[in-house]
Specification:
Helix content: 25-40%
Structural class: alpha+beta
Shape: globular
Largest sheet: 8 strands, mixed
């Protein structure tokens, strides 16, 4: 592709500094490349990206190929004496800090299986040291999900600390529960779940190779970091913390290790432009605050650090290089914020800003500022959304038809589906793939079974993917092409694990139940249920006007509840999660029901089950 050839001449591909840093301190890697779950299924393959050692083909952007090549370096690496990282065993890195008696594990990957393999590799090289502490830098699953691969709940109960930033548990649980089904489905696109790994398929996610597919767990923190400057000592390891809420995650922190002159930047400064709004879906992140916290990190720790490392990618050694790296990362987020706000105040729309904004030359030349994971395009739209919401101010966009109805009208105006496809083929031949996918999308939403439209759309999405510097963009395009050709792949990885569900409060469980109510079907229902929790509180739940509300205590019911259920909290949790039914508990003698079970059955009958396989590229 012409775009990919232009990339080769635009950037300094003879600069091997990043690859050299990615390999620096290498101590060894696993002899067995396949990491398996208890049933023998492969959850990670260390050799899956071996093809990246070859020359970049025409089916990949050379810049993304370069980034992916560096991300797939796997093994145990020494950052400085006493600090080690296992990289290439998952999307994220696992960091190990050696203490007086054992080790502190920072961010134990996404899956228990990959974390256990990473710990096993460390021990095979550095010795069989016990885990004397665990630290989560932030509330995303790829930084806590593998915890049960490095430590047990019994060890934590015996006193091994689990450290996390204030608010960690609430945010870790919320993100995976309320909108978890939709996020997980879109994450399958973002990480290219169904794509073969290879030059025409998945070559990486920019932030790391991809996500593992093992067992996701969660052990709640036992030590909260509540303020910047807080100091903790675990097994002789001194740590000074900087809280950075609202940056890359709603609960996040950086850590300075004064005895090692080392600074852990969590996921706040990595070798790419990060997301201000991840394509899988999340709350918009604040680039203004992100930049401010990076400035604070430089002021607090820049003069006393000789290396900065993070939970993705490779470290930056040397004080001058480190400060320049952090400063450029700071300038990157500040520039996108400030310029987007300036342009929206000139009346520009999100699409116009995304198309026109350019990075300063010094940032464009910095490899670590490239949009391998986030992008200038979708990050500027996120800034607009943060300040202005979804509406661009044009009344023509205030009450548009939904996709299918609009598509039918567009296709009719354009002369019918066959004519649109015929003209789109001409655009395809001219290399205008952006226009092809935009216009053929209308055909697919008007006539989803139109075979020629599906084939052309898949081909155009594929060509867009081949030209992307951004890993998730490439994966989204290629996943769209894949599902048009082969059908839906659903949601391969689910982060709402039993551990995550058990961390939900009763308040969160009732809220999660409420968002499953089918409002129109329950408009005329009026049902009140009182849950009497043994050795606990009463919770009164009422379904009325299609809304399921709950209050602690007797609640607002007039004339008493329709049904009253007395049970243990564990059984109530099982009921709310769909694991059992009150009638069954009553049969087993574990619940007493007053008022009969008919109203209970009616209420639970109004609940929808989320669809983990909803359509994306078709209606």
């Amino acid at each position: 592709m012409a775009n990919n050839e232009a990339v080769r001449t635009r950037f300094p591909f003879d600069d091997t500094t990043d690859l050299d840093d990615a390999r620096r301190g290498f101590l060894g890697t696993a002899q067995e490349p396949l990491i398996r779950d208890a049933n023998g299924g492969v959850v990670w393959d260390l050799e899956a990206y071996g093809f990246l050692a070859r020359t970049c083909p025409a089916t990949a952007n050379p810049s993304l190929w370069r980034q992916s090549r560096q991300c797939c370096e796997h093994g145990l690496f020494e950052v400085v004496e006493g600090i080690y990282q296992v990289r290439g065993f998952d999307l994220s890195n696992m960091t190990v800090i050696e203490g007086d008696q054992g080790i502190l594990v920072i961010d134990p990957l996404l899956s228990a299986e990959t974390a256990a393999a990473a710990l096993g590799l460390y021990r095979s090289i550095r010795g069989d040291r016990p885990v004397t502490g665990v630290l989560y830098t932030h509330s995303h699953a790829d930084h806590f999900g593998g915890v049960r691969g490095v430590i047990t709940g019994r060890e934590v109960a015996a006193g091994v600390p689990v450290i996390a930033p204030q608010g960690f548990l609430t945010h870790a649980v919320n993100e995976n529960i309320y909108a978890g089904t939709a996020m997980a489905r879109r994450a399958a696109y973002m990480y290219g779940a169904a794509l073969d790994k290879g030059p025409q398929g998945q070559i990486g996610a920019g932030l790391g190779p991809t996500t593992s597919t093992g067992t996701v767990g969660l052990i709640p923190p036992t030590v909260d970091i509540t303020r910047t400057g807080q100091t903790e000592i675990v097994d002789g390891i001194r740590m000074v913390f900087q809280l950075t809420p609202g940056t890359e995650a709603p609960a996040e922190l950086n850590i300075h290790f004064p005895d090692h002159a080392a600074l852990c930047m969590a996921e706040n400064a990595t070798h790419n432009l990060h997301n201000l709004l991840t394509l899988r879906g999340a709350e918009v992140r604040d680039p203004h605050e992100w930049a401010r916290y990076l400035t604070e990190a430089i002021e607090l720790f820049g003069a006393t650090s000789e290396v900065a490392f993070a939970s993705h990618h490779w470290p930056v050694w040397g004080r001058e290089r480190m400060v320049r790296f952090l400063s450029e990362q700071r300038d990157l987020y500040a520039y996108l914020h400030d310029q987007t706000v300036r342009m929206l105040n000139e009346g520009m729309t999100p699409l116009e800003i995304a198309e026109q904004i350019e990075l300063p030359p010094m940032l464009e030349k910095a490899w670590h500022a490239h949009g391998y994971y986030g992008s200038v395009s979708h990050n500027t739209k996120a800034v607009y959304q943060k300040y202005m919401g979804w509406f661009d101010g044009n009344p023509a966009h205030l009450w548009e038809h939904p996709p299918v109805e609009a598509a039918r009208r567009y296709v009719e105006f354009m002369g019918g589906a066959d004519e649109v496809v015929r003209r789109a083929r001409t655009s395809f031949g001219e290399g205008d793939f952006r226009w092809v996918v935009q216009v053929v999308n209308h055909v697919l939403f008007a006539q989803p079974d139109h075979a020629q439209a599906r084939a052309l759309q898949a081909d155009a999405l594929e060509q867009l993917g081949y030209g992307c510097e951004n890993g998730p963009w490439r994966n989204f395009y290629l996943m769209g092409a894949y599902e048009l050709r082969h059908g839906s792949v659903g949601t391969p990885t689910v982060t709402a694990s039993p551990d995550v569900l058990s961390a939900l409060t009763l308040e969160q469980l009732f809220d999660a139940l409420a968002i499953r109510v089918d409002g129109p079907r329950s408009w005329n229902a009026d049902i009140t249920v009182r849950w009497n929790v043994r050795d606990g509180d009463r919770v009164t739940m009422r379904l009325r006007n299609g809304v399921l509300t709950h209050v602690a205590g007797h609640g607002p019911a007039v004339g008493g509840p329709d049904v009253e259920v007395c049970l243990d909290e564990a059984d109530l949790r099982a009921v709310l999660l769909g694991g059992t039914a009150p009638a069954k508990l009553a049969e087993q003698g574990r619940a007493e029901i007053t008022g009969g079970t008919g109203k209970l059955a009616e209420l639970f009958g109004y609940l929808d089950r989320p669809d983990p396989d909803f359509a994306i590229v078709t209606p």
